[in-house]
Amino acid sequence: MDPSAASARVFDQLAELYQSKYMDLDLYDETYARLAHALRAGARVLDAACGPGTVARRLMAWRPDLQWLGVDLAPRMVELARAAVPSARFEVGDCRALPGVDGSWDAIVCAFGLPYLEPREAEAFIAQAARLLKPGGCLYLSTQGGRPEDSGPQRSSRGDIVHVYFHPMDGPAGVGAWLDAAGLDVQTQAPLPCPVNATVQTSDWYCIARKRPPRV
């Protein structure tokens, strides 16, 4: 089994615990609000690696007009998300194979999904998201910070093994370079506080990038 699928199995087993730790966390509300303010009325939003619906619950409360689809590889996470945000739609799906056709989404969200993708998968995810976004569409990313050389298997709070990858923002092999190559311009970027109840304390960050308009 590939590392991402193996990690998804762990999250499926720990879905309720994850929900209890992070569902009501308001540390990231300012970043979600930035995205909400950038979206047009009735915008179509794809939530990749949606977990128990943490981001969806916040944004749909503020913007009930949004057309929201969340996908997650852990079936139990999807069940929890459906219960938490009945006004949105959630499906079991792999963020490495996003639904939709080119130019079909106004925004794509991936909140703390990148740490469970190897570098080549994370780069491919960003390129895929860029293709699926409409011109001017937004990509919201948040991830755990750390040195790439520290990536690898980590034990969850229950002792299960998950594979975690640290992706830097800067540098020729960083997320910023991947965004630029995919035709996405960073609009805002900032560090994020790490939750005090996180199993491992990390230097987290987020960014919102916008798809460039086509060349005339």
UniProtKB/TrEMBL annotation:
<keyword id="KW-0489">Methyltransferase</keyword>
<dbReference type="GO" id="GO:0008168">
    <property type="term" value="F:methyltransferase activity"/>
</dbReference>
<dbReference type="InterPro" id="IPR029063">
    <property type="entry name" value="SAM-dependent_MTases_sf"/>
</dbReference>
<dbReference type="GO" id="GO:0032259">
    <property type="term" value="P:methylation"/>
</dbReference>
<keyword id="KW-0808">Transferase</keyword>
<protein>
    <submittedName>
        <fullName>Methyltransferase domain-containing protein</fullName>
    </submittedName>
</protein>
<dbReference type="InterPro" id="IPR041698">
    <property type="entry name" value="Methyltransf_25"/>
</dbReference>
<feature type="domain" description="Methyltransferase">
    <location>
        <begin position="45"/>
        <end position="137"/>
    </location>
</feature>
<dbReference type="Pfam" id="PF13649">
    <property type="entry name" value="Methyltransf_25"/>
</dbReference>
